[in-house]
Design goal:
Helices cover 54% and strands 1% of the residues. The chain has 11 helices and 2 strands, in the order αααβαααααβααα.
C-alpha cells in the first residue's frame, strides 16, 4: 500500500468535523428584563381581569332616559339603618316632572350644590382640587367636591362610605350619566331622589312636609331654605333655623335674586 493510500485511511480523516458555538452568556440586563416581563404578566393579568369584571358590574344608566327609578341605594340604606336602630322605616316620596318643580328650587339647588352644573361634563375640577387640598391638610377623606351628577350617581347606586374605591366607581357612573342623559333629565332625577329629612325624598315630599304645599308653589325664600339643608338634610330643618342654616339660606337667596332673569331651562339640554 503506497503512502497516499495510507494517508487516506488515517483515522484523522474519518473524524467528523463539527462546530459547537459557545453558549450565550446571560447578562444582568436580560435577566432583569425577563423578571420584569414575568412580573408584569403575573400582576397585570389578574388586575386586568378584576378591572374588567368590576366595569361589567356597573349599572346600565341608559334606561333612565325613559323610566324613573322605583327606589335608590340611599333609600335602601336608610331603611336598613332604621331597622338596626329599632325604628320603623318610613319613606315619603312622590315623583313629579321637572316642570312641576318651582323654578326657584331649581335655581336654589344649582346655586347651593353645583354652580357650574350646566357648563361642566360631570366634574368640577376646581372643586375637586380644592377638596383634595382640604383632605390632604386634614389628613383624612372628608370632602369630595361632588357635582350634582356625582351626587345623583351616589344616591342611585352606591353606599355612603368614603373611600377611593367608591369614588372611582362614582366617577365612572357619573361619566355614564353625562353621556346618556341631558342636563334637564339629570336635574329632574336629582331633585326627585335627593334626601330632605328623615325618610323624606324628592322635592314634592320635601315641599309637602316642610311647608305644606306642592313643589311647584314654593317661593324663592322657601326654596332657599330647602337648598340650604342639602349638605346635611337629616340634621337641619327649616323650621329650626340655626346660625349656619340661616347664613347659607341668605347666600342662596341672593344668588336666586340675581339669576331671576335667567331661569333654569326645563327643556332641551
Amino acid at each position: 500500500m503506497d503512502e497516499q493510500q495510507k494517508a487516506s485511511q488515517s483515522p484523522i480523516f474519518f473524524r467528523p468535523y463539527t462546530y459547537d458555538p459557545p453558549p450565550l452568556k446571560s447578562t444582568g440586563r436580560s435577566k432583569i428584563r425577563r423578571v420584569f416581563l414575568w412580573g408584569a404578566l403575573l400582576i397585570g393579568l389578574p388586575l386586568g381581569i378584576l378591572a374588567l369584571s368590576w366595569v361589567m358590574t356597573l349599572p346600565d344608566v341608559g334606561h333612565l332616559t325613559r323610566t324613573n327609578p322605583t327606589s335608590t341605594a340611599l333609600m335602601e340604606i336608610r331603611q336598613i339603618q332604621a331597622k338596626e336602630q329599632g325604628r320603623s322605616p318610613k319613606r315619603q316620596w312622590m315623583w313629579v316632572p321637572l316642570s312641576r318643580i318651582s323654578p326657584h328650587l331649581r335655581h336654589a339647588v344649582v346655586a347651593a350644590e353645583d354652580a357650574l352644573f350646566f357648563t361642566h361634563e360631570g366634574f368640577d375640577w376646581e372643586g375637586i382640587k380644592d377638596a383634595a387640598m382640604h383632605n390632604l391638610e386634614a389628613g383624612e377623606f372628608k370632602r369630595g367636591g361632588s357635582t350634582i351628577t356625582q351626587q345623583l350617581a351616589k344616591n342611585l347606586y352606591l353606599s355612603s362610605e368614603r373611600s377611593l374605591f367608591r369614588k372611582a366607581k362614582e366617577a365612572l357612573i357619573t361619566w355614564e350619566l353625562e353621556q346618556h342623559l341631558t342636563k334637564k333629565r339629570i336635574l329632574e332625577l336629582y331633585l326627585n331622589v335627593a334626601e330632605w329629612g328623615h325618610g323624606i325624598y324628592g322635592a314634592e315630599a320635601a315641599a309637602q312636609h316642610h311647608f305644606g304645599k306642592p313643589a311647584h308653589e314654593l317661593t324663592s325664600d322657601e326654596a332657599a331654605w330647602l337648598a340650604a339643608m342639602l349638605p346635611s338634610p337629616r340634621r337641619y330643618d327649616p323650621l329650626r333655623k340655626t346660625t349656619f342654616l340661616t347664613r347659607r339660606h341668605e347666600r342662596i337667596l341672593k344668588w336666586i335674586d340675581k339669576q331671576s332673569a335667567a331661569p333654569v331651562p326645563v327643556t332641551g339640554e
